[in-house]
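Render this sequence as a predicted structure.
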Amino acid sequence: MPGYRKLGKTSDQRRAMLRQLTTDLLENGRIKTTVTRAKEVQSIADKMITLAKKADLAAYRQALAYVTKEDTAKKLFDEIGPKYADRNGGYTRVVRIGFRRGDAAEIAYLELV
């Protein structure tokens, strides 16, 4: 049993989807997705915010290698990182909102606390 969810995708598709969801979360502060995707993105987003709290060039380049938009990485280090400077983890929350009509998948908001 792997330590991550495969989400019905090949590894490159999964990596691309998670990168984009993480970028969208950091850019907008909240995304609407399935619960399993939200839980997977949650750990990645927390790691990105932890990098932003370090606020050095190496951490910025690591974040930029994962986040797909440069202005989002800049926002991460200029606004989001300092906002959580005194908080030890738990930067995001998953709020379940119901089931999707088409396939009855459980939907949730993933938001920055």
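Summary. The chain has a mean pLDDT of 94. The chain has one domain: 11-112.
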